[in-house]
Amino acid sequence: MENCLFCRIIEGELPCEKVIETSHYMAFKDIHPKAPVHVLIVPKRHVERPEELRPEEIGDMLVGSEEIAQILGVKDTGYRLLFNIGKHAGQEIDHAHLHLLGGAPAKGMY
Ligand code: 5GP
Ligand code: ZN
């Protein structure tokens, strides 16, 4: 979608630190990491909310999260997968994306 930051990254118009990519998503490092390991798993198709994703897209993203955790060395220590949805969750970018956070103990749930 025009003027969507994540669409522009996926199209290659803007740079990113890519971890892995499939036909359904691109995973790249968050520019302002909130944990020692912070990756964004971003579907290639522009949708605003995760419930708009197709089962094969969400399935591929979840399977990919384990591979990303393995690549970045947090698979054994553990990590968090998180969708921010809407205002109270602090969603900044209106292109659904799954956060993978790890590398240190999380400081609580909320
Ligand atoms: P949200 O709050 O929408 O769930 O998460 C958006 C995330 O995108 C934030 O963690 C923010 O740091 C990250 N972000 C914002 N702009 C960029 C960018 O240009 N490149 C990358 N790699 N991450 C970004
Ligand atoms: Zn987009």
Describe this structure in words.
- With 110 residues, the protein is of the alpha+beta class.
- It contains two helices and five strands, in the order H-E-E-E-H-E-E.
- The protein has helices at residues 5-10, 55-71; strands at 18-21, 25-29, 37-43, 79-82, 98-102.
- A five-stranded antiparallel β-sheet has the order 1-2-3-5-4, with helices on one face.
- The longest helix is centred in the middle third of the chain and has 17 residues, at 55-71.
- The termini are far apart.
- The mean pLDDT is 97.
- Bound molecules: guanosine-5'-monophosphate and zinc ion (ZN).
SSE layout and pairings?
Blueprint: H1 5-10, E1 18-21, E2 25-29, E3 37-43, H2 55-71, E4 79-82, E5 98-102
Antiparallel strand pairs: 1-2, 2-3, 3-5, 4-5
Bound molecules: guanosine-5'-monophosphate and zinc ion.
Zinc ion (ZN) binds at residues 1, 4, 6-7, 46, 95.
What is the residue-mean pLDDT, rounded to a whole number? 97
Strand content: 15-25%
Radius of gyration: 13 Å
Tell me, what's the shape? globular
Structural class: alpha+beta
Tell me which ligands are bound: guanosine-5'-monophosphate, zinc ion
Instruction: Please outline the major beta sheet.
Output: 5 strands, antiparallel
Number of strand elements: 5
Sequence of strands across the biggest β-sheet: 1-2-3-5-4
Could you estimate the helical fraction of the residues in percent?
10-25%
N→C terminal distance: 32 Å
Unreliable runs, pLDDT <50, ≥5 residues?
A: none
**H/E series:** HEEEHEE
Q: Tell me the number of helical segments per DSSP (H or I, 4 or more residues long).
A: 2
